[in-house]
Write a structure and sequence with these properties.
- With 870 residues, the protein is α/β, with parallel strands linked by helices.
- It folds into three domains: 65-235, no CATH class; 287-600, ABC transporter transmembrane region fold, CATH 1.20.1560.10; 621-869, Rossmann fold.
- 60% of the residues lie in helices and 10% in strands.
- It contains 27 helices and 18 strands.
- Strand 1 and strand 2 form a beta hairpin.
- The longest helix is centred in the middle third of the chain and has 54 residues, at 500-553.
- The model is unreliable at 1-39, 236-267 and 861-870 (pLDDT under 50).
């Protein structure tokens, strides 16, 4: 037995027994708020006992601190074991692979604050609040400090070392931060208790309340940000640490030869690079330059806010109707409540769709969505056309098209789910928690909060686990579509070798492989949905049981029970889809990854900032000591020097791989030279814009590929602004007009995929007509007749002669008989010019060119006759 001495404002002393085992005397000044314990030491602080567990509208603080301290002790041991495991099996990460993150710095800062806070609280309890220390104060100080310290240690260690089998923060670190947050949140159930600091008016209570708010903010941040692990090196960085290639010094990329996205780890989080993705998308979220579209965006947001305001009032009016009917209120009161309820329900709809507010919002958003989709596709299409020839030669068309299709579709889904589903659902949950705490009590708010925390945690964890299945399914889907498209594009080869069954078998294998990944994806989805259903129903059961008890006790009315059931079901309806929305957002990011890979493809040939517009006057082409290679291991061109004067025709001959076509590509600036200089009329082509350079050059390629369009438009491609009469004149000059007019549809004849409905000679003439219509100053002929028969070649040579007349021309020739009249012939071998001169001069040298000429005469006696005719 002990006596407690209390002094109130009237300075009267009251004596009452205190339930403590050690005799103490406490003086309590009701005016100043100062409170002092006696000097005797006890386990619990003054006026606190381990039992009963529930006293004065709250949990016993001594019991609460004891249980939470025990939990932290267990977690401390678990974190220490994780640290030992990491130090034993982890691999040290190089500094250049550690991501820079402001959020990581905040993590460290908040953990340092949480580490200092127990010491501050212990000192305040000892000096100001209680006037002495107690056993529970010491226990809380030691165990909370230990748990935060080892958590900080693990956080710093995970940035320096990592396990191959793990990504992001270790589960025990995430669980520790979750428990720290839960400890602070659970204390809210004692909101109305005089033994806690929530309702205290004196300075000591306000100090403790401030410390609690600080702990709540810090632990909440650690809990949320912990799932993204901003400062932890990614698994792909670990895989690159032993790579001999220095990825930071511009080594050759291998991504173009792999499946798009194949370089990404299967376990890498789709939230990686979130800011970069949002930064890329942001210009398309806000339609700059269109006031009408901007007004639509603002209107959609206003309708969204209106929906959040309407949602709580629907169950509230339903409650009023039930109470009015139960009490027998007059009809004049009831009908107003009913009309208001129906009107609000009409505005709300089902909470997902069908309501007036949602319908209007969806209507106004259509144009904004189309704007975003259109601009993203346009920018990506322009980016692909700006990429180098090297990338286009190694791309997989089927995968690229599939990635564009899925990526652009996912953008619309991302904006819709995030802006109009995720954010409204979060707002509804916050409003519901505040409403239940203020109108019911803290228990109902706690039930909703705990269910929400468990729901979100399970959803995020399981969805992140499912990521690798979804990404693998996308990769195999790309492969299946690529295999199908590749097979269909090469159907002639399939027919030639009677390989239909083989192609069908390969496609079947790809489908089976895809469906294996699809099965894993869908099975993991079932696990996710089941876990969400269990958590939601447990929360509904707990809240309904508690509300029913309060109704039976007379604390609540029947309408309150109806309100809770209606509101909680209304809240859980979108919450039930929250996991779906989160999964869809993550799926959208996964689908967008391949598209972002395309955006990340760097342009190899880029115009300088001061690039000028090229204007050709004469047409002099000069190669000055040019050296070039595709890969450093193999040099393609070595010190190439020649000058083509205006109106001259130069021919390039030599064996395959000698660099003839490479010279043409360099002149067209598909690549930049490693050393040397290429000039047109004395202007370095690397200093002019690519568009102006290529506008001055016309090309007749060896393999002419036409668009699946009519002949008129295919010829007009040489100059898209040309009239129909100009197109026909070009066709006449190319000696193709008479053939076109004999076709049933004449110039409207469709040429088919890649122009396969036309013969080789007809396609070549169309290409020549294009070049004539373009009217370039310089003409490049890349073995334009090598695949034609002799008669067709002779006819096309006449057309080519008209194209080259008066223009600087460079011809890559396979048949030497076609270039005997060239002003100069350059003989290349292994990237070097070994001989140069006219046909007669080279024959007199009796060198490589002479041997090639004799060899062709021997192989084709008909060519000898053609040469004499020429």
């Amino acid at each position: 037995m002990s006596l407690v001495l209390t002094q109130n404002k009237a300075d009267k002393l009251h004596f009452s027994p205190a339930n403590t085992e050690i005799s103490t005397i406490q003086v309590k000044d009701g005016g100043s708020g100062l409170q002092h314990n006696c000097t005797h030491f006890s386990y619990c602080s003054c006026h606190e006992t381990l039992s009963p567990l529930w006293q004065d509208k709250g949990i016993s603080r001594c019991f609460y601190d004891t249980v939470t301290s025990a939990m932290l002790a267990v977690l401390t041991v678990a974190v220490i074991f994780q640290i030992i495991k990491l130090k034993r099996n982890g691999v040290i990460v190089e500094a250049k692979y550690k991501p820079k993150s402001f959020c990581y710095k905040l993590q460290v800062t908040f953990l340092l604050l949480l580490l200092v806070e127990p010491l501050i609280l212990f000192i305040l309890n000892w000096t100001v609040i209680h006037g002495t220390s107690s056993g529970i104060d010491i226990l809380v100080f030691i165990l909370r400090s230990a748990a935060v310290f080892v958590s900080l240690w693990l956080l710093l260690l995970e940035r320096k070392m990592m396990l191959l089998s793990k990504k992001g923060h270790s589960p025990i670190a995430l669980f520790t931060w979750s428990v720290l947050l839960l400890i602070e949140v659970l204390s809210v159930v004692s909101w109305d208790s005089d033994h806690w600091w929530f309702v205290g008016q004196n300075g000591n209570d306000q100090i403790q309340l401030g410390l609690w708010v600080g702990r709540l903010v810090c632990t909440a941040f650690l809990f949320v940000v912990g799932f993204w692990a901003p400062g932890v090196p990614k698994l792909t960085h670990w895989l690159n640490m032993d790579d001999d290639r220095d990825i930071e010094n511009g080594a050759e990329e291998e991504a173009t030869s792999q499946t798009l996205g194949g370089h990404r780890s299967a376990t890498e989080s789709t939230w990686g690079g979130l800011l970069k993705k949002l930064k890329l998308l942001w210009p398309y979220m806000w339609p700059a330059g269109s006031f009408l579209l901007q007004f639509r965006v603002v209107l959609c947001i206003a309708l969204l806010v209106a929906g959040r305001v309407v949602n709580p009032y629907v169950p509230i009016y339903y409650k009023n109707i039930v109470n009015a009917l139960t009490k027998g209120d007059p009809w004049s009161v009831v009908w107003v409540q009913v009309i208001a309820y129906v009107g609000l329900k009409c505005l709300q709809g089902s909470g997902l769709s069908g309501g007036l507010l949602n319908g209007m919002r969806q209507y106004f958003w259509i144009r904004v969505q189309q704007y975003t989709n259109r601009h993203v596709q346009t920018k990506l299409f322009a980016h692909l056309h700006s990429l180098s020839l090297r990338w286009h030669l190694s791309r997989k068309t089927g995968e690229v098209l599939r990635s564009i299709d899925r990526g652009t579709t996912s953008i619309n889904n991302l904006l819709s789910y995030f802006v109009f589903q995720i954010l409204p659902t979060i707002c509804d949950i916050v409003i519901a928690i505040i409403y239940f705490i203020s109108s019911f009590n803290a228990w109902f708010g706690l039930i909703i909060f705990v269910c929400l925390a468990l729901y979100l945690a399970s959803t995020i964890i399981i969805t992140e686990w499912r990521t690798k299945f979804r990404r693998d399914m996308n990769t195999k889907d790309n492969k299946a579509k690529q295999r199908a498209i590749d097979s269909l594009l090469n159907f002639e080869t399939v027919k030639y070798y009677n390989a239909e069954d083989y192609e069908v078998g390969r496609f079947h294998e790809a489908i089976v492989d895809y469906q294996t990944s699809e099965y894993k994806t869908n099975s993991s989805l079932v696990v996710l949905n089941m876990s969400q259903m269990v958590i939601i129903n447990i929360g509904l059961l707990a809240g309904s049981m508690l509300c029913a008890k309060y109704v039976l006790d007379g604390t609540f009315e029947i309408g309150d029970f109806v309100l809770f059931g209606t509101y909680i079901v209304q809240l859980y309806t979108p919450l039930g889809f929250f996991g779906t929305y989160y999964r869809m957002i993550q799926t959208s990011f996964i689908d967008m990854e391949n598209m972002f890979d395309l955006f990340d493809e760097g342009r190899e040939i880029v115009d300088e900032d001061e690039a000028i517009v090229l204007s050709i006057d004469a047409g002099t082409v000069k190669f000055d000591d040019v050296c070039f290679h595709y890969t450093p291991e193999k040099q393609i061109l070595k010190n190439i020097n020649f000058t083509v004067q205006p109106g001259q025709t130069y021919a390039l001959v030599g064996p395959s791989g000698s660099g003839k076509s490479t010279i043409m590509r360099l002149l067209f600036r598909f690549y930049d030279v490693q050393s040397g200089l290429i000039t047109l009329d004395g202007v370095d082509i690397s200093t002019v814009t690519q568009q102006s350079l290529r506008a001055c050059i016309g090309v007749v390629p060896q393999d002419t590929v036409l668009f699946n369009d009519n002949i008129m438009n295919n010829i007009r491609y040489g100059r898209v602004s040309a009239s129909n009469e100009e197109v026909k004149e070009a066709a006449v000059s190319a000696d193709i007009h008479h053939r076109i007019v004999t076709m049933p549809d004449q110039y409207e004849t469709m040429v088919g995929e890649r122009g396969l409905k036309l013969s080789g000679g007809e396609k070549q003439r169309v290409a020549i007509a294009r070049t004539i219509l373009k009217a370039p100053s310089i003409v490049l002929l890349d073995e334009a007749t090598s695949a034609l028969d002799t008669t067709t070649e002779r006819n096309i040579q006449a057309s080519l002669a008209r194209v080259c007349a008066g223009r600087t021309s460079i011809v890559v020739a396979h048949r030497l008989s076609t270039i005997v009249n060239a002003d100069c012939i350059l003989v290349l071998k292994d990237g070097e010019i070994l001989e140069r001169g006219s046909h007669d001069e080279l024959m007199d040298m009796e060198g490589i060119y002479c041997d090639m000429w004799q060899q062709q005469l021997t192989e084709s006696p008909e060519q000898s006759k053609d040469a004499k005719t020429d």
